[in-house]
Amino acid sequence: MTSSHRFTFASPTTDTRALHVVKADDLTAFLSGPGAGWAGWLRATGFEAGLGDCRVLPDASGGVAAAVVGLGTAQARRRLRFGLAKAVAALPAGDWALTGDLTGPEKTEAALGWLLAGYRFDRYRPGRKVADRPLLVCPEGVDAARLIAMAEGEALTRDLINTPAQDLGPEELEGALMGLADRFGAKARAICGEALLDQNFPMIHAVGRASPRAPRLLDLRWGTDGPALTLVGKGVCFDTGGLNLKPSSGMNLMKKDMGGAATVLGLAQMIMALKLPLRLRVLIPAVENVVAGNALKPKDILTSRKGLTVEVNDTDAEGRLVLADALALACEEDTDLLISMATLTGAARVAVGPDLAPFYTDDADLAAALEAGAIAGCDPAWRMPLHDAYETVIEPGIADLDNAPGFGFAGSITAALFLRRFVDARRYIHFDIYGHTPTDQPARPKGGVGQGARALLCALPAMLKLEAA
């Protein structure tokens, strides 16, 4: 599976119309200056330059001459990303160019939001008519190729998360990875079913063995020069909770439990499309966590690829088990940066909500680069503490580690500490993402969403000291 979405910017022509962007503080100046000819119309329609508030401006014959969209107040812009993307639904088809006093970051956010607002998930509504959408001329000074790569990688992530488990199991996730490998000339392999035991991935096998859709470890490599980057994504294509069965309310969104895998695939696509000068490896443990007679049982003790033993105190804490084997594999060769991404804990949502991507790292320089990348990529992230005092919580006594300690607190932190036990790489970042937008937002419709990928893309030059990116 590869995303069919293709994003583009318009080329300026004589038919390109102006889209005036006006901050709330500058409305009076606009109405007495560039917008003087439409001042009466705009006042009569209640235009106050609120963030995303858009008006089409008529010409003398009643046709469309231009349009104006509000950029709101500074406070409104802090509260809502991609507010200008509201204009995409309000404007008629055609080519539009932004005019107004915009900073470089504001131009980038506007252009990226415009592209992302063009995403639609219509796989299950093939007969639905979609109106032609307005196209934007890429603002001066904005890297169009970079934003298109971001939008297309994000579309792949959203498509994968939005697809129901009936059509996206471990085999189909493998197909998505193989599709990327074919498109960008990467090398890829899959280790499936009983071969996981033969090649020492016991915890991936244990979690996925109850499903008729065989578990597998997916491995993609791309690039021959530059620093080494390894991405590991949780690929639990559906999570019933196993024998510790989830209630129906907790199971409804579990098609998104492969959101970590979807996000690293989207990021990998961005990296390869932009031809970043690095060596990329992507590892995805792809499984379904379902119920059958041979399902993993509470209190089972597993021996991991790394040799650490794990007491299974909750079969619904399966994501960290499959990630552990993949992280151990990743650390069997040198890598300059290791990143894991997973829809791992509900505790992370309680801590930061659905809009922030919490991340963990012991490296202050990596954290600083990522925080800057989050701003540049309009992709908010928040550093969480790897609090060493909680290490004893994940040690059950009967085995080396406990996959679901009964501590009752700090669930996202203890999960990150669990994963860190399987990491030997010096530079490591773990993301505990949500992968879902619960309500429609500008440029982010309700449903699957990538978190952290754009922040990482923007941070990689600093993290890996890339010569050109």
Automatic annotation (TrEMBL):
InterPro entries, sorted: Leucine_aapep/pepB (IPR011356), Macro_dom-like (IPR043472), Peptidase_M17_C (IPR000819), Peptidase_M17_N_1 (IPR048816)
M17 aminopeptidase N-terminal domain segment(s): 19-128
A single GO BP: proteolysis
Top-level taxon in the UniProt lineage: Bacteria
A matching Pfam family: Peptidase_M17
GO-annotated molecular function: manganese ion binding; metalloaminopeptidase activity
Domain Cytosol aminopeptidase residue range list: 156-456
Gene3D superfamilies registered for this protein in UniProt: Leucine Aminopeptidase, subunit E, domain 1, Zn peptidases
Any one Gene Ontology cellular component term annotated for this protein: cytoplasm
Keyword field: Aminopeptidase, Hydrolase, Manganese, Protease
Keyword Hydrolase: yes
Family in the record: Belongs to the peptidase M17 family.
Designated name of the protein: Leucyl aminopeptidase family protein
Source lineage: Bacteria, Pseudomonadati, Pseudomonadota, Alphaproteobacteria, Rhodobacterales
